[in-house]
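Annotated sample (chain length 584).
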Amino acid sequence: MKKTTRNIASGRRAKMPIGLIVICILTALAVIYIGFAVFFRSHFCFGTTIDGIPAGGYGAAQVEKQIRAEIENYSLQLLGREGVSETIDGGSIDLAPVFQGEVEEMLKQQNSFAWIVTLFTKQELELERVVSYDEEKLNEMLQGLSLAQEENQRAPSDAACSEYIEGTGYELVPADFGTTVDMDALAGAVTEAILTLDEEVDLEEAGCYVEPKVLDDDETLLSLIDEMNRYVGTTITYDFGEDREVLDGETIHTWLSDGGNGNVAVDEEAVLDFVKSLAREYNTAYTPKEFLTSYGKTITVSGGFYGWRIDNAGEVEQILSDLAEGGEVEREPVWLQTANSHGEHDYGDSYVEINLTAQHLFLYKDGKLVTESDFVSGNVSKGHDTPTGAFGLTYKTQNAILRGEDYETPVNYWMPFNGDVGMHDATWRSSFGGNIYKTNGSHGCINLPLSVAKKIYETIDAGYAVLVYTLPGTESKAVQQQDAAAVVNAINAIGQVTLESETAITGARKLYDALSDSAKAYVTNYDVLTAAEAALAGLKGQPDPNAQPDPNAQMDPNMQTDPNAQTDANTQPDPNTQANGSVQ
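Output written by the structure step:
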């Protein structure tokens, strides 16, 4: 059998091995990879940015060119307070980059064989740029900014305590941050921004403003406001019997100020002025007293120190204490001296009434007569007159020894009311009242019968009112007749009138004028006195002193009174002044 052989290969093409194909592909990729690696040795990899500027595929020179272009268009925006915004252009200050191989250095540090990674990740680089600019031009621009002009700035003000608000007190006045620019801080912030090519500066955040020193949360300030409100929230109601005086914030706030360190300073002089105003209104010491005597006649008792008297220093101290504590207070003022009653008559209805003219006293307690008695007062002939006025009993004691320059006298009951002048028993006397005091009176004291002195001693205490006065016409009839008889005798003693009669005539006139109206009625030869005065005037070439003026006579229009003549209405007796002698 004949075999037929066929060359299969001749009927189709031969196939390339798969391995060879792979090798070819890998080789191509390697060439591409290496090619790019070589390329990226002088160019930045894909996805690379430098300070936000795309640098992928660019060489160092190209990147520098882009940076230069960016700087040429650079401007810095300044964001100020209250919506103020201003711009500084880079060109106006000759802003330019200064390259010192930084871009090339960044390129050298790039791993060119890692270029493929950058296809999937971004590489963000930052350049420590160095720029140059004209410092003088920058300074001129800063000085010329609108926000830097004084007329466009508002100075900052510290947070503070408000003025007093009626009905509210004190509140926080918030700090005003103002718009005054700190030029040194502004220059620093702008310079830093330019060097890093920042596009804006928030001046508030950069600390470019002059700030208040005291802010709203300052603990010292808040403490001061609380303290001030506590002070003006204090109310002091003064009790003056039926009258009331209220001291509150309307007055108190005028005394207050910031004492530093959160403390309130109180103007003590102003407090004292307030206390003095109370004293002027309510003090009754040293003031004349309207007094209805036991004789039915109302008189004015002047002199003496009896009455209400505020202790100015003590009241100031008490007010300061009340203010420091705060709250509502109702009290009387601090008294240096008290009286029996508030109101029209501070002596009330308990007092010793001493009538020097009648040489008679009355003791009243709660409006009821306790006792009355004649007495002997100071010796008029020796100048030991008992002083008149309204006084308060200083103290009382038993078995005292009263001493003077020429005497030493024991008494059972001693009740001083005006220095060394007081009431006491006088057991050495056998009679009281009448005219004894004129020539045989005491050294100024009120001499009393023992039983009366004892009764008074048992009734009164320190501070008890003692009202001493004179009341012409209240002498007894016998005394009036005795006094008138002495005047009659003095007039009769004048005799024939000569120039030498002047002393006798003057003496008789003084005695007559000293009489009460009722006693004068007993002088039967008064016409002899007036005739003697007229005769003496004629001898001296003078007009009759008793002649009645002509009602038709005109006053000399050129006569003037002294406009500077004044009386001192403020003179007051000193309660501590010692009276003349006082023990018998």
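Annotation: The chain has four domains: 19-148, 220-282+308-337, 351-474, 478-539.
Annotation: The domain at 351-474 is CATH 2.40.440.10 (L,D-transpeptidase catalytic domain-like).
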